[in-house]
Recover the amino acids of this structure.
């Protein structure tokens, strides 16, 4: 309780003058606080109304997303709103703190890359430039693990379009053999229709340097790219994607109950990721929305 409220609560018993003297505040300040009470009540009511609008945006049962933090919540609130109804990010942050709303945070991180010291090397054609732009030209990918309660793991391989942040292809299996990343690349090829001339950037994992994977990239006309050995920053966007996926699917839990649950959760998440999940790098819209607005939807390199 603040000092002004204490004086207001006990003024009938002790008097404003005496209480102000004992607590050490000016009476003029107390009366100014009293005069401002209607404004405080109005702001509190407005904050409660905004919190009521935020709540369903984080509630999966109402079509929301528990992983959404301040930027995406702000974008959702302002989408289609009249200028007078728009809210700024700082106010959204303040109200979310006040009412205890926050996006989900990842609790742990596990490395899954198995480097192949004898594998083939490819130049870095990305150079840590993960900027958005024309879809279909540059892709990044990685493997992440999904823990199960029985102690085993599933593994997810991704192919992400740098231009639009779209998850163009992915595959899951109970192993990290070359077939996993081949299936993910093939899924992207089917989704896009062609990958000819596109760059695919990865780490130096043995599956990406294997003869079979190199052959498949050649078949699809894909130019392979790799960062420095042991540098996660050179594939930061794929690392960030993996972190977001596990943070938002596990929601702080240690593992999925079983493989079937994990498969279904990833399938739903991947669909939402492309169709509804907002990405700040592309103007806080979903990848499919971003691509639909492009004049030339797929700018495959020649």
């Amino acid at each position: 309780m603040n000092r002004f409220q204490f004086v207001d609560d006990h003024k009938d018993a002790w008097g404003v003058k005496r209480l102000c003297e004992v607590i050490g505040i000016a009476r003029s300040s107390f009366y100014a606080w009293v005069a401002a009470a209607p404004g405080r009540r109005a702001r509190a009511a407005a904050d409660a109304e905004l919190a009521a609008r935020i709540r369903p945006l984080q509630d999966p049962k109402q079509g929301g997303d528990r992983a959404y933090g301040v930027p995406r919540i702000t974008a959702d609130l302002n989408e289609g709103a009249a200028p007078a109804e728009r809210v700024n990010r700082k106010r959204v942050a303040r109200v979310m703190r006040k009412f205890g709303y926050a996006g989900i945070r990842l609790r742990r991180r596990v490395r899954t890359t198995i480097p192949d010291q004898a594998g083939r090397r490819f130049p870095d054609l990305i150079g840590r430039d993960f900027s958005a732009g024309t879809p279909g030209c540059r892709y990044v990918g990685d493997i992440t693990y999904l823990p199960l309660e029985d102690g085993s793991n599933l593994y997810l391989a991704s192919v992400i379009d740098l231009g639009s942040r779209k998850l163009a292809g992915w595959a899951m299996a109970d192993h990290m053999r070359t077939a996993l990343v081949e299936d993910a690349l093939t899924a992207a090829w089917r989704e896009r229709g062609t990958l000819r001339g596109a760059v695919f950037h990865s780490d130096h994992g043995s599956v990406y340097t294997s003869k079979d994977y190199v052959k498949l990239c050649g078949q699809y006309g894909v130019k392979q790219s790799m960062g420095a050995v042991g540098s996660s920053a050179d594939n930061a966007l794929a690392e960030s994607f993996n972190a977001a996926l596990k943070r938002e699917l596990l929601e702080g839990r240690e593992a999925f109950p079983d493989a079937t649950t994990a498969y279904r959760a990833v399938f739903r998440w991947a669909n939402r990721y492309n169709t509804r999940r907002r990405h700040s790098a592309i103007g806080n819209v979903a990848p499919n929305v971003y691509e639909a607005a492009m004049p030339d939807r797929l700018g495959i390199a020649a």
Q: What stands out?
A: Residues 37-54 form the longest helix (18 residues). The mean pLDDT is 84. The CA atoms of residues 51 and 99 lie 7 Å apart. The chain is about 45% helix and 10% strand.
